[in-house]
Automatic annotation (TrEMBL):
Keywords: Cytoplasm, Metal-binding, Notch signaling pathway, Repeat, Transferase, Zinc, Zinc-finger. GO terms for molecular function: ubiquitin protein ligase activity; zinc ion binding. InterPro entries: Deltex_C, Deltex_C_sf, Deltex_fam, Znf_C3HC4_RING-type, Znf_RING, Znf_RING/FYVE/PHD. The keyword Cytoplasm applies. GO terms for biological process: Notch signaling pathway; protein ubiquitination. CDD domains: Deltex_C (cd09633). It catalyses: S-ubiquitinyl-[E2 ubiquitin-conjugating enzyme]-L-cysteine + [acceptor protein]-L-lysine = [E2 ubiquitin-conjugating enzyme]-L-cysteine + N(6)-ubiquitinyl-[acceptor protein]-L-lysine. Its main location: cytoplasm. Gene3D superfamilies: 3.30.390.130, Zinc/RING finger domain, C3HC4 (zinc finger). SMART domains: RING. It comes from Anabas testudineus. Its EC number is 2.3.2.27. One of its GO terms (cellular component) is cytoplasm. This is E3 ubiquitin-protein ligase.
Length: 322
């Protein structure tokens, strides 16, 4: 590059000057940089424009308490969760049977849980599952039709939250009401008088999640062991539009069902036994989108609605739990 610059210097005495500008206008372009760039670019008959890298904007401008307003259509502005999860009184076998239809002649294919033929015994050899008769050895999930060994489904249920719901491991259809293992915490939500990039015609819904560190319960990976909670309170943003408020209503259902966060291993830091996001994406970057967690993002609201649907949460749930 230096050789090329030196060669060009010998031929640029009569090259016309090309204006060089700093788009941000916050500080002048260094003369040496402007001169070299002008020489190189003018020789190629190209315009010159030096810019600063875009700036990360995580938070909105300061907001006074008097400017914070309730979200239209919402009677409250805070939701808390308790430590203990509501447990169903039925045994695992009873829960699984509730969602199954009997199969007289199993097809010649493998159970996708244990990978053993459905026509033979379950490949599960662990504790907690008793023997079953041949007539009950295989069952078909009533809604989606996928078939499994009964003992495999019971073992899968025992390894989950044991909340009375069952999720098909093949197609993810949810039977019953799915709940998670989100620790106790608080969810606040209100409107602030600023607009998000891509949503200039409305104000912004700010959600504040706060979960303190604690001790893992029986539904967590390591019961009795402490868990950490990094980065709280976490601020998240939605446009205060009709669809944004719809997403907020569904997020409240997800919060009540303990599905927004989980306890596990962080994919970013590798830390185990810590509070992590649980497959429902949030925007934590207010005024930019440099990390992919901000705006503008035209498909974000629809993506969140789809992620909530995958957790078994739809508009029908809002009507029941609003």
């Amino acid at each position: 590059v230096m050789m090329m610059m030196m060669m060009m210097m010998g031929f640029v005495k009569n090259v016309p000057t090309v204006p060089v500008k700093n788009l941000n206008g916050s500080s002048p372009v260094h003369p040496a940089l402007a001169g070299i760039t002008g020489i190189l670019m003018s020789a190629a008959a190209l315009p010159v424009c030096l810019t600063r890298p875009p700036k990360l904007v995580l938070h909105p401008p300061p907001v006074s308490k008097s400017d914070i307003k309730p979200v239209p259509g919402f009677s409250h502005c805070c939701r808390k969760t308790t430590k203990k999860q509501v447990r169903k009184g039925k045994t695992p076998e009873e829960v699984v049977k509730k969602y199954l239809q009997k199969v007289k002649s199993p097809p010649e294919e493998d159970c996708t849980i244990c990978m053993e033929p459905l026509g033979g015994p379950s490949g599960y050899k662990g504790p907690g599952v008793g023997p079953v008769s041949r007539a009950e050895s295989v069952g078909r999930l009533a809604q989606c039709g996928h078939q499994y060994h009964f003992q495999c489904l019971v073992a899968m249920y025992n390894n989950g939250n044991k909340d009375g719901s069952l999720q098909c491991p093949t197609c993810k259809t949810i039977y019953g009401v799915k709940t998670g293992n989100q620790p106790a915490g608080k969810m606040e939500y209100h409107v602030i008088p600023h607009s998000l990039p891509g949503h200039p015609d409305c104000k912004t819904i700010r959600i504040i999640y706060n979960i303190p560190p604690g001790i893992q319960g029986p539904e967590h990976p390591n019961p009795g062991k402490p868990f950490t909670a990094r980065g709280f309170p976490r601020h998240c943003y939605l446009p205060d539009s009709e669809k944004g408020r719809k997403v907020l209503r569904l997020l409240l259902v997800a919060w009540d069902r303990r599905l927004i966060f989980s306890v596990g291993t962080s994919s970013t830091t590798g830390e185990s036994d810590t509070v992590i996001w649980n497959e429902v994406h949030h925007k934590t970057e207010f005024g930019s989108n440099l990390t992919g967690h901000g705006f503008p993002d035209p498909g974000h609201l629809d993506n969140v609605l789809e992620e909530l649907r995958a957790q078994g949460i739809t508009e029908d749930d809002v009507l029941v739990e609003k």
